[in-house]
Amino acid sequence: MPAFDHTSPNDLPAPLARWFAAQNWAPHPHQVQMLQATGNALLIAPTGGGKTLAGFLATLAAACRGDMGAGLHTLYVSPLKALTYDIGRNLARPVADLGLSCRIEDRTGDTSATRRARQRVDPPHVLLTTPESLALMLSYPEAPKIFGSLLRVVIDEIHALAESKRGDQLMLCLSRLRRLAPQMQVAGLSATVENPAALAQFMGGAEIVIAHPGPAPDIAMLPTTATPPWSGAGGAYAARDVMRAIADARLTLVFINTRAQAELFFQALWAVNDDNLPIGLHHGSLSREARRRVEGAMADGALRAVVATGSLDLGLDWGDVDLVIQIGAPKNIKRLVQRIGRANHRFDTPSRARIVPANRFEVLECIAALQAVEAQELDGDGRAPVGGLDVLCQHMLLLACAAPIDADALFAEVTRAGPYAGLTRADFDACLDFVATGGYALRAYDRWQRLVLREGLWHLRDPRAARAIRMNLGTIVAPELLSVRRGPRGGAPLGEIEESFAAALSPGDTFLIGGQTVRYDRLRDMIVEVTPQPAREPKIAVFNGLKMATSTELSARVLALIGDRAAWAALPCHIRDWLALQDRIACLPQPGTMTCESFQRGGRWYFALYSFAGRNANQTLGLLLTHRMERDALAPLGFVATDYATLIWGLEPVRDPAPLLDPEGLRAGLQDWLAENAMMKRSFRAVATVAGLIQRNLPGARTSGKQATFSSDILYDTLRKYDPEHVLLKITQAESMRGLADFGRIEEMLRTRAQIVHSMAPHVTPFAAPLMLEAGRIPIRGAGSARLLEDEAARMMAEAGLTLEDVGAKTQA
Amino acid sequence: MTACPFRFQDHDFIARPSGALFWPAQNALVVADLHLGKSGRMARRGGALLPPFETRATLERLGAELQDSAAARLICLGDSFDDDRAIAELGTERALLEQICAQHQTLWITGNHDPAPEHLPGLVAQDWHEAGLTLRHIAGDGPDISGHYHPKLRLAGQRLPAFLIGAVHLIVPAFGAYTGGLDHDAPALAALVPQGRAIVTGAAARMVPLPLPPQKRAGAARRWSARR
């Protein structure tokens, strides 16, 4: 295609400018700045600021000038499959209208095998993909050919990627791309963040472009006719009010924090949908077909509302959304701001958002969040000093699939990635050793070799291993999921549920998936077979979505709000009553004091500690405290941590919490429990999976046979016993210190709130009630659970009319 | 450690919390499915590079059990090795094994993983008849004592290796470190031991009836009922 004009490559070509003018659109200053950037650039813009277009202007301009060349020109990476689909559709319009020679394709886990194979030989000009698909492509020997011509990389929603291991993986891939295509330019696109410089460093250095923040949002609590319940997270009490708001708006996005809640709320909405407004459901457990249908219907304007989880959290460009409703506490001010921005994707009009707290605790958090938004105070989050070493192990394996590895060159390449700038050579070598030989202290035999060193290069010993390595790709280790299908044999796929949930089902049980109630029939070949049961009241679907910890800033605001009676004026009357009731029955948390209470219920003693330290720190605290309670013969059975509190239950009461909360003792206990708690084992499982020690259980690759899986717990115990210095144990320890929130947050809490206030409540307290219903309980396998096992076994024998005397007296062996 | 005595086919046995079976009348310790050399076999076949410590871990545990039970004989019910080659690849663990066999009269029953074990100290047999019972790898015509299935049982929220004791079959749990398991109510096991007793292992050996009476689903049930 001939060049239309002779302006500099950094200006908008005339035909493109004319096309945009015809759409009544003029570029924002930050979009022009992104077009003119000569090196890597990071754009910080609020939702609706035309971020994606800013990232693609340079590509469209090149296409207008006929400069696309042969092969891959632009790579677009987004954290969500749905985004690649959406972006592809949006880009297709100007390309078609202007008759540009520019082939755009997406490539995700959902792309067909034939298409993926073709893309390896004949890549499009613009490839839209996810970090995982990019990593996979880099593992192919053809990678240099595919990516050698690359000129631009656009990373969308980079602020979201930077928060997880997926970001580490993407930055490692970016480093590899820079080696394959030294000429390429990277554009990072981010929502509003509190520290743009850190994000620029994360992407390996970039010029920062900050867009005008736009008008202040119109955000408030949604007035509801009923008061929020004492407990629960579903928000169903507000279904009618939400329905009314939907009816008054053009298109509403209803955000809710977990998938199970989304299913339930969706059902609750339909129950009051008297006008049969078209309302869709979108979350990560639904089948791909179901998700695409909703995305398509939304883009076509066929829907009035979509109930969604984090799967729609990120920048899908739906221009028509004019109302965002957040059900449940937002947990994080930054995320709330980003979600609010989804309403009115126009830069110059304020976004309209309403919040619906799901229970009374959340009313407090919602009000605190609104106050924070008004004060324009975002929460920060500390990144680990060095990226995940398990991710590095996986990256090494994937690169070894593409070509033999030169250790020195790879070290130089890896340390050019932002998160790994501080990586030591010793850690790098330990990872390489693990990848090559397992890295065990017992230096084994030559069969313990995945990589072999030949002429200075690390080769894959058995090229057939590449397949298993690629299958294991990815940094998200989700609970095992089982596919749900209608009817026996090859019925329509409805979605996925967690294996632990499936295991708890008995034939005839009903649960919700995809907005319909289904009856569990059987589990066959690891597929859950169900029959639709429209009329039945379902059991709740307990597949957990993402659980975020309430940020430090937001937690502090909540505690301050509770503690300051003068600030109660901002609270609804029923909340003031609730706080007053808690004050009367037990004690009200105050800044500066550590409030806790004990009470008895149903044969168990409960101990609730109102730390307001966030879910992760509270989980750490729960582990530490139960460990000490076990030592003190209080027979703890388990605990649950929320953002506000830790609730521990056991067979004996806590009457004096002071010795339990002694900071010295807690610190000393830290090392002990790190060794053997369930949390560490869970962490280990994730680390071992990402690093490639254990294979992911993939659908189809699994049988129900006896030796198909063995527990990673046993590997953990074995390693701890025989090779305590092993690199995976080190990674696990570092990881869980971070993952469970650093001990620092607990120490700070103990320091700033030194005065312990403990009450023996006569029964379950108004604050403790919601905690009793929380999911995600951590069992403690100690003396208490041994007593329960004993009781359960004895009860069963008795029920069956058997006694141990039938078979001889119990003896000590 | 609390062991659990029981009777099977008019013989007295003691189920040990480790998953080993003690037969006092024969002064024998019976174990199943040691799967020694599992990590080595996986590594050799290009699989995962598992920590190569399970052979040592299993043999150390076995040695401790033999000493603790004061058994004079050791009977391994097959799949003692993850494959026949694993015997040659024992390496430094060979000494541990020799020591055990030197102190105890050892009988190796062959299994599907180790059909033809060679160069083993002790006696090798496909199956073995003793005191009116057959000792074999996979349950056949009863009455017999066998392994193979790695039976497990869920109790009070935990999934534990378990002995299954039916009218004619006694099935012993896997003793090896890296071994998974099959639920006691999986069709293959339910067909062999439809009713009788199970003894779960772990911190202590505890007997429960089979089939299990309905269990309380503590946490889950409370959660589900919360919304009603």
Automatic annotation (TrEMBL), chain A:
Q: Which UniProt keywords apply?
A: ATP-binding, DNA damage, DNA repair, DNA-binding, Helicase, Hydrolase, Isomerase, Nucleotide-binding
Q: Name one GO biological process term.
A: DNA repair
- Where does the source fall among the domains of life? Bacteria
* A single GO molecular function term of this UniProt record: ATP binding
InterPro entries this protein is in? ATP-dep_Helicase, DEAD/DEAH_box_helicase_dom, DEXH_lig_assoc, Helicase_ATP-bd, Helicase_C-like, Lhr-like, Lhr-like_DEAD/DEAH_assoc, Lhr_WH_dom
According to the entry, every stretch annotated as the Helicase C-terminal domain falls at 241-392
PANTHER family named among the record's database cross-references = ATP-DEPENDENT HELICASE LHR-RELATED-RELATED (PTHR47962), LARGE ATP-DEPENDENT HELICASE-RELATED PROTEIN (PTHR47962:SF3)
Which protein is depicted? ATP-dependent Lhr-like helicase
Q: Which organism is it from?
A: Roseinatronobacter thiooxidans
Q: What is the lineage of its organism?
A: Bacteria, Pseudomonadati, Pseudomonadota, Alphaproteobacteria, Rhodobacterales
UniProtKB/TrEMBL annotation, chain B:
Q: Which InterPro entries does this chain map to?
A: Metallo-depent_PP-like, PdeM-like
The record's section on SUPFAM superfamilies has:
Metallo-dependent phosphatases (SSF56300)
Identify the NCBIfam families for this entry.
P_estr_lig_assc
Q: What is this protein called?
A: Putative phosphoesterase
What organism does the UniProt record list as the source? Roseinatronobacter thiooxidans
What broad taxonomic lineage does this protein's source fall under?
A: Bacteria, Pseudomonadati, Pseudomonadota, Alphaproteobacteria, Rhodobacterales
